[in-house]
Specification:
122 residues, elongated, mainly alpha
């Protein structure tokens, strides 16, 4: 995988790849299609919105896209919780990907906070 040198871009892309692989597992091994469809939408949208934010034309645009990424990460957190609580994934599978999701939420929150304190895109 090509690294961009931007932590949130790289981590959100790696996370999307993990979500895609989890989706493949859920469909193939568990024959689960509904929750996995929701998960793949929100889990891959995080990185897409981060990439759009990087190309933002203003601080307002940058923040808007990162806020969408943060909302998608929160939604992904919810779907992951449902998957483990309904036994589609085990605790070990959950812990690893869930921790990555929480890390993305923390990074996005920190970036959004610092973009208020230091509006670099204006």
């Amino acid at each position: 995988m090509r690294q961009s040198g931007n932590v949130i871009v790289d981590k959100s892309k790696s996370f999307a790849i993990r979500i895609i692989r989890l989706n493949q597992f859920l469909k193939k091994e568990k024959k689960e299609y509904d929750l996995s469809a929701q998960l793949i939408h929100s889990g891959t949208s995080i990185g897409a919105n981060v990439k759009e934010a990087i190309r933002g034309q203003s601080t307002k645009d940058f923040r808007a896209k990162l806020n969408i990424a943060l909302k998608e990460a929160s939604e992904t957190e919810y779907w992951l919780e449902l998957l483990v609580e309904t036994d589609y994934i085990d605790k070990k599978q959950f812990d690893s990907i869930y921790n990555d999701c929480i890390e993305l939420i923390k990074i996005l929150t920190a970036i959004l906070k610092s973009s208020v304190d230091n509006p670099a895109h204006e």
